[in-house]
Amino acid sequence: MKLAFIGLGVMGYPMAGHLVRAGHDVTVYNRTAARADAWVSEYGGRAAVTPAAAAEGADIVFCCVGNDNDVRQVIAGENGAFQGMKPGAILVDHTTASADVARELAAAGAAHGLSFLDGPVSGGEAGAVNGKLTIMLGGDEDAFDRVKDVMAAYGRAVTLMGPVGSGQLTKMVNQICIAGVVQGLAEALNFAQRAGIDGNKAVDVISKGAAQSWQMENRSSTMLAGKFDFGFAVDWMRKDIAICMAEASRNGAALPMTGLVDQFYERIQGRGGSRWDTSSLIDLLQRP
Amino acid sequence: MKLAFIGLGVMGYPMAGHLVRAGHDVTVYNRTAARADAWVSEYGGRAAVTPAAAAEGADIVFCCVGNDNDVRQVIAGENGAFQGMKPGAILVDHTTASADVARELAAAGAAHGLSFLDGPVSGGEAGAVNGKLTIMLGGDEDAFDRVKDVMAAYGRAVTLMGPVGSGQLTKMVNQICIAGVVQGLAEALNFAQRAGIDGNKAVDVISKGAAQSWQMENRSSTMLAGKFDFGFAVDWMRKDIAICMAEASRNGAALPMTGLVDQFYERIQGRGGSRWDTSSLIDLLQRP
Question: For the complex shown, is ipTM > 0.90?
Answer without folding.
Answer: yes
